[in-house]
Amino acid sequence: MIEILSITSPIFILIGLGYCAVRAAFFSRADMRVLGTFVINFALPAMLFKALSQRSFGEVMNSGYLLAYALGSLFAMSVAIVIALKWRKRDFQSSVIVGMGASLSNSAFIGLPVAVQVLGPIGSVAMALSMLVENLLMLPLLLVMADRSDHKSASVLSMLRGTFARLLRNPMLLAIAIGFAFALFGLKLPAPLSRVVEMLSFASGPLALFVIGGSLAGMAVKGMIADVSLIAVAKLVLHPAAVLVGVLLIPGIDPVLQAAAVLIACVPMFSIYAIMGQKYGLESMCSAALVVATVASFVSISMIIWIMKSAGFIPALS
């Protein structure tokens, strides 16, 4: 367990450092948005491109992984929505937002550092594949479901078209596409550009974690114990369990990628969950769930790594 904590502790220390920096007024929450913009638009795209472009296409395009992660995410989303509807008596739109929190991981800011620390460079490839599922399947589906009740006159096709148009301008998705192209055709960047990409990619992990911590500063956990508990448990327990079943049932997935899929699924929900909830008047619930899940994930991630290692699912820690 000490070996596992030596991997997970630095990740959460960096998150805590960002939190304390904002609380101590070294940075403002507005500064975190600026730093987050740099990470999303430059550092993480560079890291994704580097991870994908330096491998063969067969290594980075794994249809079994995509299917398993998609099925696990859809299952977690569906169960959370049904529980919110039937048990919590939530309306459909609110239940969809609960399902969003249960099934969309913070793949880039927390999932990547965890997977890379435990499994090495293959964690970057797994994160890119997970992001494809999240951004091209899960997020469009959830947004259309949530918006449908507000825009009943709009066609599903037009709503999907608008959602995909916005997503395809995402720098991280563009970096994934270009990285796949380089892997497919065996292309290489000129040495000076390759060095720039490498330098930017080094900044992605630590800065992303620092931004997460700073963004949590000032978020309050108010009431809503049942809803917040539902979202946090579904995200930290149900989602990784569903993905684990998926990777075990779908043949042909490398064991290291199987482990990476579960690790990415076991991290808290994506960092803009509260912003997404604000659109539907659910910012308080989403903010509280984000804080609780992020704090609780220190224990849950460490336990999942320990369980997977004890079961031989992770042969050796990197």
Automatic annotation (TrEMBL):
It is a multi-pass membrane protein. Keywords: Cell membrane, Membrane, Transmembrane, Transmembrane helix, Transport. Its main location: membrane. It is found in: Membrane. It comes from the Bacteria. One of its GO terms (cellular component) is membrane. InterPro entries: Mem_transp_PIN-like. One of its GO terms (biological process) is transmembrane transport. Pfam families: Mem_trans. Signal peptide: none annotated. The chain crosses the membrane at residues 6-27, 34-52, 64-85, 97-119, 125-146, 167-187, 199-221, 228-250, 256-276, 288-308. This is Permease. The lineage of its organism: Bacteria, Pseudomonadati, Pseudomonadota, Betaproteobacteria, Rhodocyclales.
